[in-house]
Amino acid sequence: MTKKIGVVIVAAGSGNRFGDPIPKQYHTLGGKTLLGHCIECFARHTSPELVQVVYNPAHQNWYDGAIAALGADITTLPAPIGGGVTRQQSVLNGLRALSARKPDIVLIHDAARPGISDDVITRVIKALETHAGAIPTLPVADTIKQTSRDGVITKTIPRDTLQRAQTPQGFVFETILAAHEQFEGQEFTDDAALLEELGLDVMCVEGTSANDKITKRDDFDRAHDWIDSTNKDNASMQQEEYRAGTGFDVHRFAPGDHCILCGVKVPHTARLDGHSDADVGLHTLTDAILGAIGAGDIGQHFPPSDMQWKGAASDIFLKHAADLVRKRGGRIVNVDLTLICERPKIGPHTKAMREKVAEILEIDVNRVNVKATTTERLGFPGREEGIAAQAAASIALPIG
Ligand SMILES: Nc1ccn([C@@H]2O[C@H](COP(=O)(O)OP(=O)(O)OP(=O)(O)O)[C@@H](O)[C@H]2O)c(=O)n1
Ligand SMILES: C[C@](O)(CO)[C@H](O)COP(=O)(O)O
């Protein structure tokens, strides 16, 4: 009898060791997020209806962007379920959500392992014909040392019986659900450990190095190598194309004591005048991003005639543009802004401005540049009648 295969992909982690504002599972390789690669691979072994993603609801925008970049056949993917504070709790939430769909077996996978292959999945499923659990592993290649807390070696551990555990970890569904329910709140670092605790056999099958977990930045570079080699063999792999957009804006000065520039309050002898908070920096960046995705300009999305934008904080406009990029499955590669004025002096504020823009766009601060120039006292900026700004944005969008 053909077994009904359920899948739980855990993607609710925050990627602290990866150290980027965007959680690692939402970083892209070859036009798709790490999570997207996993979803597509498992959907091939079962149907998308049986693939349950576990996520952090605070990551909704990133999640939507990840799904938007996938093929049309993924549209029947169930809504993601919220995770817990530990991987183990996230797995349990996923298993509970999946139980109504009554799978016979379940494969539990880390979204942080985008290099999962059909072969590894097939080996795990095959081993489940004779065992309650099966996991992919790789033998340990290095000599393993046990050390004291201060780093002095206390023992050399024979490595011939040691294996590195990967995912997907496959189980008879009812067995692993019952085990996770029983051990809820106790700490285990993988799912196989729960069956081990119950004295049940878990079989090891051969994993692959491409399936190693992305934990730190270096691991991500390694995964880039994997995707490059996969692309050569797989014409259907989705590719990215790069788009550029530019923006330009001017706001005049009016009586006041500070300007809002890139979301930062900059003390000055005048304020900038405008329908919103007149943040010339954020308006210009918004136009550059809208330009790169062919989405018109800020005035079309937020008409000056609309009173709801009167005095509005311009964060809203820039965030809207970034959301449009993510909804198309794209990502912001970098933005570069030049503020053009004699005064106020911008230099002392560029760090805070870059951080604020990065926060609004939800990208790394290294992808944001803010600089300033004068016009040598020529023209309206030179006469200190207002501030002009120009910006460029580079966006990667999936092709096809
Ligand atoms: N509360 C958690 C913690 C982790 N995970 C998922 O479990 C997998 C393996 O965890 P790990 O590599 O530790 O991911 P993070 O928890 O995101 O990373 P870190 O420990 O560095 O914060 C990842 O796909 C992660 O998203 C999860 O769903 N829920
Ligand atoms: C489940 C796992 O990926 C198997 O290697 C690993 O144990 C997850 O551990 P982490 O500490 O949450 O990265």
From TrEMBL:
Q: Where 4-CDP-2-C-methyl-D-erythritol 2-phosphate is bound, by residue?
A: D249, V250, H251, H275, S276, D297, I298, G299, T373, T374, T375, E376, F380, R383
Residues annotated to bind a divalent metal cation: D249, H251, H283
Q: In which pathway does it act?
A: Isoprenoid biosynthesis; isopentenyl diphosphate biosynthesis via DXP pathway; isopentenyl diphosphate from 1-deoxy-D-xylulose 5-phosphate: step 2/6; Isoprenoid biosynthesis; isopentenyl diphosphate biosynthesis via DXP pathway; isopentenyl diphosphate from 1-deoxy-D-xylulose 5-phosphate: step 4/6
Family matches, as Pfam families = IspD, YgbB
Q: Give the protein family.
A: Belongs to the IspF family. In the C-terminal section; belongs to the IspF family.
Cofactors demanded by this protein: a divalent metal cation
Q: What is this protein called?
A: Bifunctional enzyme IspD/IspF
Residue stretches making up the 2-C-methyl-D-erythritol 2,4-cyclodiphosphate synthase domain = 243-395
Q: Which reaction does it catalyse?
A: 2-C-methyl-D-erythritol 4-phosphate + CTP + H(+) = 4-CDP-2-C-methyl-D-erythritol + diphosphate; 4-CDP-2-C-methyl-D-erythritol 2-phosphate = 2-C-methyl-D-erythritol 2,4-cyclic diphosphate + CMP
Q: Which residue ranges are recorded for the region named 2-C-methyl-D-erythritol 2,4-cyclodiphosphate synthase?
A: 243-400
Q: Which UniProt keywords apply?
A: Isoprene biosynthesis, Lyase, Metal-binding, Multifunctional enzyme, Nucleotidyltransferase, Transferase
Spell out the residues of the site Transition state stabilizer.
R17, K24, H275, T374
- Site, as annotated: Positions MEP for the nucleophilic attack: R159, K213
Which stretches does the entry tag as region 2-C-methyl-D-erythritol 4-phosphate cytidylyltransferase?
A: 1-242
| Record EC number | 2.7.7.60, 4.6.1.12
UniProt superkingdom: Bacteria
A molecular function (GO) held by this record is: 2-C-methyl-D-erythritol 4-phosphate cytidylyltransferase activity
Relate the protein's function as given in its record.
Bifunctional enzyme that catalyzes the formation of 4-diphosphocytidyl-2-C-methyl-D-erythritol from CTP and 2-C-methyl-D-erythritol 4-phosphate (MEP) (IspD), and catalyzes the conversion of 4-diphosphocytidyl-2-C-methyl-D-erythritol 2-phosphate (CDP-ME2P) to 2-C-methyl-D-erythritol 2,4-cyclodiphosphate (ME-CPP) with a corresponding release of cytidine 5-monophosphate (CMP) (IspF).
Recorded source organism is: Thalassospira povalilytica
